[in-house]
Amino acid sequence: MSSIDYSQKIPNNVNLSDDRTLQRALESWQPNFINWWDDVGPEGSTNFDVYLRTAVSVDPNGWAQFGHVKMRDYRWGIFLNPGDAERKIHFGDHLGEKAWQDVPGEHRANLRRIIVTQGDTEPASVEQQRHLGLTCPSQYDLRNLFQVNVEEGRHLWAMVYLLHKHFGRDGREEAEALLQRQSGDQDNPRILGAFNEKTPDWLAFFMFTYFTDRDGKFQLSALAESAFDPLARTTKFMLTEEAHHMFVGESGVSRVIQRTAQLMNELKTDDPQKIRAAGAIDLGTIQRYLNFHYSVTIDLFGADQSSNAAIFYSSGLKGRYEEGKRDDDHLLKGQTYKVLEVQNGQLVEKEVPMLNALNEVLRDDFIKDSVAGVGRWNKVLEKAGIPTRLTVPHKAFNRQIGALAGIRMSPEGRIVNDAEWAAKKDEWLPSPEDFAFVASLMGRVVEPGQFANWIAPPVMGINRQPVDYEYVRFN
Ligand SMILES: [Fe+2]
Ligand SMILES: [Fe+2]
After folding, report:
1. I want to staple 442 with a disulfide (CB 3.0 to 4.6 A). Which of 135, 167, 334, 461 is the partner?
2. So what's the pLDDT on residue 398?
3. Quick check: 71 and 50 in contact, CB under 8 A?
4. What pLDDT digit, counting tens, does each position of 250-291 carry?
5. Alpha-carbon gap, residue 277 to 27, rounded angstroms
6. 178: closest CA among 199, 148, 157?
7. How far is Cα 145 from Cα 460, in angstroms, rounded to an integer?
């Protein structure tokens, strides 16, 4: 069951050929997906042969096979982790009951909404990243971008499979709509804010894959606990793919910092203008990008208090991060959690029912995980003997969603008036001038083993290939 049948038009490990109706429905969606890829997928990449990994089985050690493929011929398919027929629901009001193989009628609307919202982010990020290939800093990085893009395409397949298999006609309509909304579109945008932002350059791409793909990790982890077993099994497999996306972000930012630190030492300066003149990205700009991507991403977890979050948990649709490893009662009734709000111009903590605060619980888990990687970036600076440190901004900085939306706050967490915000905004968030400068560095480097001046080479290549391997054949 766990090995993948590649002889089918749609590779899968779910015995798709046993269900002709479903197979036909998905086969009729498939050309629309390819059209979408051709229209808004990676620009100008049609003839490239890219060194990509493809899943061969969902077992940990048969995971991937590497080879040069054209992206539109990538074997997108449907892969679920193996099921456990005895699996029990382990949180919420149905605790101890058998996990569901089908969607219970009373939870249908909420489950569909959860799946559509997750599904919508997958093609959105491909759209956001579609121009980046034109300015890649190396073949190695170009290959990583394309790997992320094809896997986001597969994540869309994963959600579309659930919609087609379990939600009938409206599921099929939702699957079509996933190909029709478009990131940043005036009339028909993607559902969530961060997925309508631009990813204009490679520093933004690395920040996005570090922070926003990590949001993906936490959302998928919460869904991997779901009482709806097909959702739990498909998100578990998606998580193994997500790990690589976060690696691309973490190592990408790390290599940018490494190059900047090297030039700071060579030129014996911390003057941002001198670093810029030497063709690298000054630490202030890196910090401002970090502030932006962090604040936009933590908004994705939703309002700090949410009755929907309580319903999703109590009904077993969405658990907490690592629900199974927690040793409380998994019901959470009568428990409280601290959230922030502004009272009389001051930030104060307020105890609220934990069930209503589960978005905040997940956001706080995400924050802990994010901070750890920022610490690893700071190690690069420490090793280079540079005293500057990167930090994540205060949770209330630059928020658009929940009780903290619209508060004027410095990255350190001080409430500021409109005049100070206006005066300091460009020190705290990337300014048009920062974007223009970073854009000016984005030239295309495609000779094997060559890297743009603003980024250090990686320590290792992909799949133990050398760093100067021909990761992309341009034909
Ligand atoms: Fe994804
Ligand atoms: Fe991802």
Report:
1. 135
2. 97
3. yes
4. 999 999 999 999 999 999 999 999 999 999 999 999 999 999
5. 53
6. 157
7. 16
Domain assignment present for 148: yes
Which helix (H) or strand (E) is 71 found in, with range?
none
Cα 152 from chain centroid? 9
Residue 147 forms part of a structural domain: yes
- The alpha carbon of 195 and the centre of ligand 2 are apart by a number of angstroms equal to 12
Q: Is 424 helix (H, G, I), strand (E, B) or coil?
A: helix
The one-character DSSP state at 414 is -
**pLDDT for position 230:** 97
Give the residue numbers spanning the domain of 93.
Answer: 78-320+358-390+417-473
In a domain, 437, yes or no: yes
Nearest to 209 by CA among 255, 162, 266: 255
Per the structure block, which two tokens stand in for 52?
């990509």
* Helix or strand run (H / E) with residue 371: helix 358-383
Q: Kindly identify the ligand whose nearest atom is closest to the C-alpha of 153.
A: 1
Beta bridge partners of 252: none
- Write the CATH number for 87: 1.10.620.20
Q: How many domains does the chain have?
A: 1
Q: What is the pTM of this model?
A: 0.96
Single-letter code of the amino acid located at 474: F
- Evaluate whether residue 469 is within a structural domain: yes
Closest-approaching ligand to the CA atom of 219: 1
Query: Measured in angstroms, how far is the CA atom of residue 154 from the centroid of ligand 2?
Result: 10
Query: If you measure from the C-alpha of residue 242 to the centroid of ligand 1, how many angstroms do you get, rounded to a whole number?
Result: 6
Which residues, by Cβ under 5 Å, contact ligand 2, an ion? 213, 216, 242, 245
Ligand found nearest the CA of 244: 2
Which ligand neighbours the alpha carbon of 154 most closely?
A: 1
Nearest listed ligand to the Cα of residue 122? 1
- CA-nearest of 397, 419, 418 to 409 is 397
Residue 340 backbone dihedrals phi, psi, to 5 degrees:
-100, 145
Question: Cα of 212 to ligand 1 centre, how many Å?
Answer: 10
* 3-state SS class at 7: coil
148 Cα to the center of ligand 2, angstroms: 6
